[in-house]
Design brief:
The complex is a heterodimer of chains A (about 290) and B (about 230). Chain A has three domains: about 140 residues, Rossmann fold; about 55 residues, no CATH class; about 70 residues, no CATH class. Chain A has eleven helices and 13 strands. Chain A has a six-stranded mixed β-sheet, sandwiched between helices. Chain A has a four-stranded antiparallel β-sheet with strand order 2-1-4-5, with helices on one face. Chain A has a three-stranded antiparallel β-sheet with strand order 12-11-13, covered by helices on one side. In chain A, β9 and β10 form a beta hairpin. The longest helix of chain B has 28 residues. Chain B starts with a helix and ends with a helix. Chain B has one domain. Chain B has about 230 residues and is mainly alpha-helical. Chain B is built from ten helices and no strands. Classes of the chains: A alpha/beta (about 290), B mainly alpha (about 230). Chains A and B meet through α2 and α3 of A and α1 and α4 of B.
Amino acid sequence: MITAKRLCKSFSEKQVLSGIDLDIRPGMIFGLLGPSGAGKTTLIKIITGQMGFDSGEVNVFGKAVKDLTGEDKKRIGIMMDDHGVYDRLTVTDNLKIFCDIYGVPYSAVSRVLKEVGLDDSAKKPAMKLSKGMLARLKLARVFMVDPKIIFLDEPTSGLDPMTMKYIHKLIRDKRASGATVFLTTHNMEEAATLCDEVALLNEGKIVERGAPDEICRRYNHQKKIDIHLTSGEDIELDHKAGSAEMITRLLEQGMLETIHSSEPTLESVFLELTGRKLDQEEEEMYA
Amino acid sequence: MRNIGIIIKKQLRDTLKNKTVLIQFIMFPVMTLIMEHAVSIPDMPEFFFTKLFSVMYIGMAPLTSVASIIAEEKEKNTLRVLTMANVKSWEYLAGVGIYVWTLCMAGAGVMATGLPSSDIPFYLCIMATGFIISIAMGAAVGIFAPNQMVATSLFMPVMMVFSFAPMLAMFNDKIEKAARVFYTQQLRVLLGQMTFDGIKTETVLVIVLNALIALSIFFAAFKRKGLE
């Protein structure tokens, strides 16, 4: 569905993307994970034809990006973090513009508003929407044409957990209906719970890729079991047969409160690979 | 062509809720109607306010509204969404240009209601020409400015010169001489004559030259910055 080979892009002296390879299969949620400034938005802009690139190849629907026709573009939905809406127009009028552009009947507006849970706010001017509602309006705009590929740039950035969950559900629903979703995020929890496959991007290079669970298992060097006892004490056991006896004894004595195997998270894998946190730059910015 | 119609429709919906742009289109026609009916001074030239406000309307409304509309779309990144939806840059610019020109012509139609019917075709031709030049200038400013604040600081002096120079020229010979190089002043002269007969070559040359400069600036701005 989307492929990239040895993709490179630089701005003046700075190499933003170097040797990016991608192969995103139809019907999957693919997450591009990386800290701010890693090149996520640049990559999405190149794949969607908003920006040129220096060398390499990018194909969407089996065609080079520059050869995509107007009809092809109608099958692609894009929600960029900085894309705006018409503040003074109502939610409905905002969507009607795109009904006109895409040649979709106005009846699609109520369908899509229901889908994103904004049907009660149909007549509200966009300027009166909360941040979460605004994100859903932008998603509604993307969903208008039932796109086959959906690009979402930081779709839940800065949203409350409820709205975030709601948007995750919408994204999963789109996958269930056959769409391929390409999303960027620096939220490792989001990537782990939502994505079928992720790529970790750091300083313009993909440092790791695969299914989130598979990546975490691959970096499970320590193989420890963490136990929290009813007494409040924490103990760590090796992930070996010998620990079973101890665990059984704790269970029999009713001393075991919680037990977890200590697989690494995507966050810790990223830290191990790059020496930096996914949200390090944000933390520094707000420090 | 379909997309041009869509842009016009969108602008119509938006302008009705955008008081700052809406007032640009309404202010001068309304002022003309009021002043022509309310003020009568002995020896005042015929249709004084209609002619004066018409030239100010040409220099102000299309320039500021086109620049504001384009700059706002760029600032809020809605223009990007339109281009991503396969609306071509030229379709967008044509849509905004046609929309503003049509609204301004409607305003000019209101301002022309006091004129003798035989003068109306000439009057509307002059207004139409002036609006086109101002729209090209406004579009150049809108394309060049990254946001509304920069657009305002760019179009304000341009708009002041083009709209107020013809008025000040009535009271000061030196200003009148300097203002001759502006299309608004030449359009004011033509509105004073109110006839196609006896139009001076100098007048036509200045208007054409102004139009060429406006279009050159527009194309240069578009070539350099596009609609990014």
